[in-house]
Amino acid sequence: MWKRSELKAKAKVSFKRNYWRSVLISLLFALLVGGGTSVASSSSWREEADQTVDGEESSLEEDIEELAKDEEFKERIQSMDKKTLTIYMVGFFIGASIVFLVIMALCILLDVFVCNPVEIGCDRYYIRNLREPAQVGNIGYVFDSNYKSMVKTMFFRDLYVFLWTLLLVIPGIVKAYQYMMIPYLLAENPEMTKEQAFAESKRMMSGQKWRAFVLDLSFIGWEILSLLTFGLVGIFYVNPYRDSTHAALYEKLRYSN
Length: 257
Prior knowledge:
Distance between the termini: 9 Å
Largest sheet: none
Number of helices: 12
Low-confidence stretches: 35-53
């Protein structure tokens, strides 16, 4: 049986011992995989953006008013029949749909072939960092190992979680915690098959999903503080602290049962 306080204490010691590398790894993980709190924009930047948007809106309103006064423009609109307008609308919808699908496809490919392997590499770093100062080069571990097999396993992990989420949100969350240990298992066992990784993660998380969820909830105060500091606390403390704690949980479940 594990305690949150013990895992967090071990995580603090390990990431502080190798502080700057851990910060870099967690920042990379957050940017590529979305595993941490994103960096919020500064207030001055937002004010400039708002002013720019306001200016553009004002300019757009003026253009619309000028067009409304333009008799030639009115005649052209009135001369268009419903069929022509429908063709334009359908063409716009099809074009927008194609652009959306292309962007979605690129995002999926990036996630499958780059982000997921990097996630495994980051997890490998934190597992090793529990025992000794790990190297940043661990993030490229998957690309030099059983790459295709691990990409396949991680793809099915994401697919299963997504399909369960379509049923209801809660089953998706449950499955996400059930498969939580898959990237850690692959980080230590590159030859592990998809079936073995799913079965072992399911075994390790049996009776542990709620406790792991509560463990994540225990960081909510730090997450709020990170938001209040525009993500700085998240980058320099919360993210490596949480990632180290997850690695400590894996180690405890893997080698203590």
